[in-house]
Amino acid sequence: MTVTITIQVSDQPAQHVTVSDDALDDVRFDFNPSGDRDVTLVKALSAGLLTFCQRPNGKTGRWMAIARTHIETAQMFAVKAVTYK
User: Fold this and answer.
1) Do the beta carbons of residue 42 and residue 28 sit within 8 Å?
2) For labeling, which of 12, 18, 27, 58 is most exposed (least CB within 10 Å)?
3) Whole-angstrom Cα distance, residue 80 to residue 85?
4) Which secondary structure element, helix H or strand E, spans residue 24, and what is its range?
5) pLDDT tens track for 7-62
6) Distance CA 43, CA 78 (A)
């Protein structure tokens, strides 16, 4: 499966991120028993940000690892929030 995120900010050129398979696995993208569109959106956006954090970054490796942990945590709570009944 290919997931691509496109971000357009004001007059800047659009940015495209093709989400990595690892990031899709990290957010358990295929696990959405209810088929909820908001869950799919939260997981896709989270996976896009995780993909961005996978880039080689030299000295900032520890910071990116911490960021990845917080992204995964935020994704789980966002899914919980959008599926709350």
Assistant:
1) no
2) 58
3) 10
4) helix 21-26
5) 999 999 999 999 999 999 999 999 999 999 999 999 999 999 999 888 776 667 78
6) 9
Q: What is the pTM of this model?
A: 0.87
| Rounded (5°) CA angle 38-9-44 | 25
Provide the phi-psi class of 81: left if phi over 0, else alpha when psi is between -120 and 50, else beta: alpha
The answer to whether residues 24 and 1 touch, using CB atoms and an 8 Å cutoff, is yes
Give the span between the Cα atoms of 23 and 44, in whole angstroms: 9
CB atoms within 10 A of CB 21: 13
pLDDT given for residue 58 in this prediction: 64
Residue 63's H or E segment, with its range, is: helix 61-82
Classify residue 42 as exposed, middle or buried by CB count within 10 Å of its CB (0-12, 13-18, 19+): buried
